[in-house]
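quick one before i forget lol
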Amino acid sequence: MCLSVPMKVEEIRGSLARCSAMGQQRWADLMLLGDQVPKIGDYVQIHLKFVQRIVPEREAREAYEMFDEIIEHLDTPKDK
């Protein structure tokens, strides 16, 4: 199973975008977007080092909330 975390575009150099999310940074290729080039500050979905689509900020924030809940749940000790 693959999980995709929306990332915020921080920098664009040619056909590559430097993106960040949850304390991590990645460079991703923009070629799959064709003419839909994101702007700095946009949120994108990345899979296998390729930006697959631009996502609304609301969707990105909702995903971050869900990931925070998952992490919190994983960090909670289980009763034996």
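fyi The mean pLDDT is 91.
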